[in-house]
Design brief:
With 177 residues, the chain is mostly helical. The chain starts with a helix and ends with a helix. It catalyses: N(6)-[(R)-dihydrolipoyl]-L-lysyl-[lipoyl-carrier protein] + a hydroperoxide = N(6)-[(R)-lipoyl]-L-lysyl-[lipoyl-carrier protein] + an alcohol + H2O.
């Protein structure tokens, strides 16, 4: 199981991450599609080859092909949007925020899966990428659709844990032995 491989690869000082991986992924209350789509989108957002290599096969096995592609699509479009909208937020000149983006984001309107699932995945990727404007936007859509805060929090926990695991494993790979 990929989750066990990731946990085994973590050093002793990251014991909390091992435990958190088991709880936020291994014992999640999220429906399979929401869970594994979030895991896959987050693994992609970390840009960590080792994390993606371990989590992708299990995500593929637990997702229908259209959900698998949509989760990857959420990671892709949010990689662009998070940079764009985070930059608009950070710029002192707010005039940029009134300008048309002119960037294609068609997948957001037609993701090929339940809109709530796609929004949840986009939200989780935005958490990893640190875009407050996108976080607020996706959280608002999710709450308006009736999604409980506990579900949104579960996505945050997955994003935080997968990102932390990626950071530790990638840093450990660079340390001298």
């Amino acid at each position: 199981m990929a989750l066990d491989e990731l946990k085994a690869a973590l050093p002793d000082y990251a014991k909390d991450l091992k435990l958190n991986l088991g709880s936020v992924i291994g014992n999640s209350d999220l429906p399979e599609q929401q869970l594994w789509g979030t895991v896959l989108a987050c693994a992609m957002a970390t840009r960590s080859a080792s994390v993606l290599r371990e989590l992708e096969p299990e995500a593929r096995a637990n997702l229908k092909p259209e959900a698998y592609e949509a989760a990857k699509g959420a990671a892709a479009v949010m990689a662009m949007n998070n940079v764009y909208y985070r930059t608009l937020h950070l710029l002192s000149d707010k005039e940029y925020g009134t300008m048309r983006a002119g960037l294609r984001m068609n997948i957001i309107g037609n993701p090929g899966v339940d809109k709530v699932d796609f929004e949840l995945w986009s939200f989780a990727v935005s958490a990893i990428n640190g875009c407050g404007q996108c976080l607020d936007s996706h959280e608002g859509v999710l709450r308006k659709a009736g999604v409980d805060r506990e579900v949104i929090q579960a996505a945050i926990k997955i994003a935080a844990t997968v990102q932390a695991v990626a950071a530790v494993l990638d840093a450990e790979a660079q340390l001298p032995r």
